[in-house]
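User: Reviewer 2 asked us to show a designed sequence for the structure in our supplementary figure. I'm pasting the C-alpha cells here. Could you produce the per-position amino acids so we can include them in the response letter?
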C-alpha cells in the first residue's frame, strides 16, 4: 500500500491562518502530478495537517469514519463518501475516538482536470458552484469500481518495470468516473440551461466541429448572437470565442499526441488560416508552442 504523508517539506509552503499553520501542497513537487498530471495514493493515518493544494483532489473514505474540516466547517464523513477538493480549499482529517479510517486519493492538475471535464462535454464551472455540495455517498457498485481500480494501481505500482501510461490511464479513468458521478448528482445540473444550448454544447465536442467558428455556433443555435453570447456566458462562464479556443486547443493536444500531422495541417484542421495565430493561442493556453509540446509529451516517459 502506498501511503502519502503530508508534512512540512520541500513540496510545501507554510502560511499562517489565524493561529494555525496552513501547508500549501504544490503539484510541481509531486513526482506523479508533475510528470503524468495525475496522482493516486492511499491514506491510513488518522490525522493530516491543515493544508491546501494547487490542484484538484478526489478522496473516498474506504473504511470507518472521520472528522473532516473544510474551510472552517467540521463534519463527520462516513465510509463510501466521495468528496472533491478544489484548489485553495483548506482542509484536514482528524480521527474519531476509537474509530480508524482509511481513504484513497486521486488527483489532477488544473489543466488535466479541465481536459477531462471537456472530454465529457462539460465545463468545470458547470460542476463547481459554491452553494452545491461536492460530496455524496457511493452505492455498492460505484464503490466496487473505485476499489477495483485502486487494487489495479497497487499492483501496477509494485511492478519492477512500471507501465506509467497504464497507471496514468487508470487514474484518469477514476477521475472521469468521479467527475461524471458528481455531475449527474449535482443539484443544479442543467437546471435552467436551455435545451438548445445543451444540444449546441454536445455538438461542439464532435470531431467534425473542430473547425467551428463563432458564426457557426450562432447558426447552429438558431438564435441571434446577443442571445447566444449571453446564455453561453451565463451557463459556461465563457464567451463563445474563449470556449471555442479552449476546445480547439484540446483537440490540438489530441492531434499532436496521436498523429503525425504537421503544425500547419493541425492549424488548418482547427479552422485557423494563420499558423502563427494558432501557435500564439496554443502557447497562451499551455505555456508551450505546439512543436515543443509534442516533443515533450512524446519523450516524457
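Assistant: Here is a per-position design you can include in the supplement:
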Amino acid at each position: 500500500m502506498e501511503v502519502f504523508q503530508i508534512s512540512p517539506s520541500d513540496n510545501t509552503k507554510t502560511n499562517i491562518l489565524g493561529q494555525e499553520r496552513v501547508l500549501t501542497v504544490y503539484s510541481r513537487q509531486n513526482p506523479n502530478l508533475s510528470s503524468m498530471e495525475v496522482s493516486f495514493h492511499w491514506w491510513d493515518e488518522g490525522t493530516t495537517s491543515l493544508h491546501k493544494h494547487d490542484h484538484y483532489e478526489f478522496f473516498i473514505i474506504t473504511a470507518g469514519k472521520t472528522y473532516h474540516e473544510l474551510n472552517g466547517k467540521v463534519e463527520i464523513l462516513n465510509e463510501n463518501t466521495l468528496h472533491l477538493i478544489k484548489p485553495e480549499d483548506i482542509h484536514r482529517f482528524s480521527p474519531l475516538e476509537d474509530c480508524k479510517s482509511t481513504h484513497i486519493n486521486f488527483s489532477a492538475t488544473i489543466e488535466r482536470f479541465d481536459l477531462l471535464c471537456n472530454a465529457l462535454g462539460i465545463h468545470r464551472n458547470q460542476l463547481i458552484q459554491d452553494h452545491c455540495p461536492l460530496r455524496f455517498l457511493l452505492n455498492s457498485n460505484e464503490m466496487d469500481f473505485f476499489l477495483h481500480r485502486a487494487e489495479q494501481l497497487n499492483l501496477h505500482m509494485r511492478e519492477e518495470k512500471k507501465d506509467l501510461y497504464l497507471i496514468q490511464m487508470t487514474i484518469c479513468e477514476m477521475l472521469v468516473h468521479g467527475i461524471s458521478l458528481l455531475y449527474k448528482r449535482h443539484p443544479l445540473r442543467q437546471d435552467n440551461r436551455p435545451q438548445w444550448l445543451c444540444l449546441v454544447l454536445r455538438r461542439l465536442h464532435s470531431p467534425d466541429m473542430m473547425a467551428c467558428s463563432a458564426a457557426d455556433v450562432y447558426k447552429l443555435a438558431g438564435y441571434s448572437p446577443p442571445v447566444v453570447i449571453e446564455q453561453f456566458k451565463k451557463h459556461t462562464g465563457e464567451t463563445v470565442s474563449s470556449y471555442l479556443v479552449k476546445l480547439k486547443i484540446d483537440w490540438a493536444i489530441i492531434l499532436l499526441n496521436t498523429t503525425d500531422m504537421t503544425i500547419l495541417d493541425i492549424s488548418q484542421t482547427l479552422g485557423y488560416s494563420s499558423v502563427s495565430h494558432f501557435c500564439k493561442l496554443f502557447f497562451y493556453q499551455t505555456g508551450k508552442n505546439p512543436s515543443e509540446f509534442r516533443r515533450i509529451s512524446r519523450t516524457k516517459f
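For the response letter, you might also mention the following. The chain has a mean pLDDT of 84. The CA atoms of residues 58 and 181 lie 12 Å apart.
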